[in-house]
Write a structure and sequence with these properties.
Layout: E1 4-5, H1 6-16, E2 29-31, H2 36-39, E3 41-42, H3 54-58, H4 60-69, E4 73-88, E5 96-97, E6 104-105, E7 123-126, E8 130-132, E9 135-143, H5 145-153, E10 160-162, E11 170-176, H6 188-196, E12 198-214
Parallel strand pairs: 2-12, 4-10, 6-7
Antiparallel strand pairs: 1-3, 4-12, 5-11, 7-9, 8-9, 9-11
Amino acid sequence: MQCVPLRRLIQTAYVAFANGPIPSPTQLQILDGPAWIDSDPYDITAKAVGNAPMDQMFGPMLQVLLEDRFKLKVHHDFREAPVYALTIAKSGLKMTRTPEGSCTPLDINHPPSPPAPGQTPNLCGPDRMGKNGPNTTMGGHGMTIADLAGILSKNVDRPIVDKTDLAGRFDFHLEFAGGMADDTGTSIYTAVQEQLGLKLTPDKGPVEVLVIDHVEKPSEN
C-alpha cells in the first residue's frame, strides 16, 4: 500500500474488511485522532506467512500491524448525533428488485475471471459516479439497502440510518445536482424521493463511531 494516510488504513482494517471478504461500503467516523493521521501518508510493504486470504491481510492482519507499529488502540462506540432516517416515501418504492442470481457479490478472495471481449463482469455493487451535463449520476446493481445507505452517506452531511425494513437486493440509478442541496437543480434529497421512492428525514439517533484511545507515529524502518 502506497501513500495512504492512517485514517484510511484504519477504515480499511477496522471497517471495510473487519467482517469478511465482501468489503463494507460503510464508513465510520473516527474520533479523537491527532491531525497527522490525515496529513502524513505512509507506505506499507508487508508479506504474510503462508497463503493468507486477501480479506485477512486487509482486515485482522492489518489491524495487528497498526497496533504494533503505530501502538494503535481503538474501540467501537455509539454516540447520539444528527442523522437522516431513510424510509419509504408516500409515493411508494421506485427501485427495481434485482433478479435472483443475476449478479455475484464481489469476494476479494475469489476475484472473477476476466470477462470476454466486449463484456463486463456481472458483479453486484455500485457503479462509478459520473456526470450527465451538470448533474452527478450514481447507480448500482444488486445492492442491499444498507449498501445504498452507505453510499448515500458519503454525499450528504450526516450518517443515514436505514428504517425501511426492506430486505433483498435492488438496482437503482440516481441523478442530482451536486452532493448537497442545490437551488440550481435537483438536490440529492429530492432525487432520492422522486427517483428511488425513498425519503431522507433529519433525525437524531445513535451512530456507531470508532474512537482512537492511543496512537503514536511509527519509528523509522
